[in-house]
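User: Working on a comparison across species. This one is Triosephosphate isomerase from Fructilactobacillus florum 8D. Can you predict its structure so I can line it up against the others?
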Amino acid sequence: MTRIPFIGGNWKMNLTPTAAVAFVQKIQPKLPPRSAVETVIAASPLFLTSMQAVQGDGPVQIAAENCFYRDEGAYTGEVSPKALRELAIPYVIVGHSERRKYFNETDDIINKKVQAVFKNQMTPILCCDETMGRFENGDRVSWAVGQVTAALRGVSATDASKLIIAYEPSWAIGTGHSAPSQEAEDGCYLIRQTVADLYSDEVADQTRILYGGSVTDENIKDLMAEPNIDGVLAGKASVNPAEFLKLANFETLK
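Assistant: Here's the predicted structure for Triosephosphate isomerase from Fructilactobacillus florum 8D:
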């Protein structure tokens, strides 16, 4: 099955509303068509509507970095998935290692968020990670696979086939130390096999699996050449328009 490449950017707590609008305006004319490469920027909820206003019919899509697992209620400071749906947000990042580390999000919370995103007719970008300690101890496989399995409890095969999973070793995020392409491929392959075991080979073939962790224009071609890596979720490289454009146009890089 042909899976459309997915080049995603996760801005985290960076940029400002004015800079976000200027970013979208700058990259739009230079992006590949959505039918060839899907480009997505996940930004702060403060920026979403202003970014959408200049997005128009251009290739880039605007995503959310996070949401809560309830549609509404007394949850001060949280982002409602119901509200994101009304904004026509297509994707929501769920389970990023920083949410797990700094905000103590458990597998159970992440599972609730996955189901809430699907309930509101959006698609989760489900992140799974591994720590350097587990990497060095050879325990990275069961760690990442366990997170995927826990996050997909109660998720139907129909929804799972739409899912995007980002394999993001936390020891590589923001460190400048990207996983070698073969190690990234091994992780993505095992995640795809996990989806196949949970559902079917057909569902696994439809699921797009990304790599994230110190992605640059110097390593993206090698990563994208791997059969089980369908795209990337970049952090640092995504807040610079010129760098993000290099990632989006990876096929033309020398």
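For your comparison, note: DSSP finds twelve helices and eight strands in the chain.

User: Helpful, thanks.
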